[in-house]
Amino acid sequence: MLSLASLSRRELGERLAGPGLDLGTGGFVTRLSSPIASVADGLHLLYGDYPVHPNGQFADFHVSLMPSPGLRRWYKPQVNFCYDGQPVFRPLPLDHAFPMFEWGLNWCVSAHANNHLIVHAAVLEKDGLAVILPAPPGSGKSTLCATLAHRGWRLLSDELALLRLSDGMVAPLPRPISLKNASIDIMRDYLTVPGQAAPVFSRPVSETSKGTVAHLKAPSAAVARAGELARPAWVIFPKWEAGSEAVLSPLPKARAFTGVASNAFNYSLTAAPGFELLGRIIDQCGCYEFRYSRMDEAVALFARLSSGLAPSAA
Amino acid sequence: MWQVIPGQDLRQWGWDDEYVVYNNLSGDTHLLSGDAMQVLLALRAAPADEATLAASLQEPGTEADISAAVTEILSELDKLSLIEFHEC
After folding, report:
1. Would you list the domain boundaries of chain A?
2. Could you point out which of A196, A224, A246, A270 has its C-alpha 20 to 30 Å from the C-alpha of A258?
3. Which pLDDT belongs to residue A311?
């Protein structure tokens, strides 16, 4: 299977503007078309490790990012995210095209992959065991996820925990990690280590609905192991608080259940099977709330957690 | 008499005296205390009026009057459409 890195930037642009690119991410194939240079630039920068499938075979999602027609070609140009040829969101400024691709691809999965319970959560793995980090925006979930994904944990997803209804295993969907505002420079500094490859970020895009956003390239090893499932072992609700020590507090399991359910995209849709699945997962997991402010403390605490030591002693 | 609404499966998970209950008729999930779950399970076993229910749930050897608590729980479970009252 070819990887996207086998295409030059020019070849990638021609493929996107022409027949489309069948891009594999986790268990999904997206047929993507776009003549927009920033989309090709972002893919070229962040998606080199991902498989490119032969055109003409089955694709789960048919996506295009197209400039708005008419006067918008010249006056404040815009981009539309189209699914099966139809726009599904309000258009955004053309400069937001790559973040819109990332957000739109999240939507494709969260709106259609209903053989999973889909939770808005980061999820990482170590030794076959997954930690699920559900949290609303602003909780520091992605910052924590980016940190752990570069400090010994395998990135399964920054945004979507896919819990298979058939067996409760986590299906990986490693993709670039979305960072916002101050987190971008914080993570750029934290992940820059002398003697190691510099972290790769997309060009920051300002004045989006989330502020300034940039995407951090997923570790290559996580992309290469996207077919390896993981068993949920911990459910942890993170909360970044300025000046806080890293504190992991046990969370009553029934509260953890309702917390995960309220962060799930399709909990109601999955009905009784989703209820049973989530109950089994909560039953088998350690459930906690986690407050932190310093990355190294968080890394140390999660290392103790995964080694089976008392996490509160970190 | 109070009874569990016919058709309720009362799927449940419980930990540390808290329970989540799936209302298969509405699709909602409810977080219930251990006491509320006890009332629900008692009504699943057999419909009952308030006094009978309070008597059956009274801890042996205790004097405390739990009828007010049972009334409150019944009202909550009724609001959640898990139980219903019908005249005999």
Report:
1. 4-112, 116-306
2. A246
3. 62
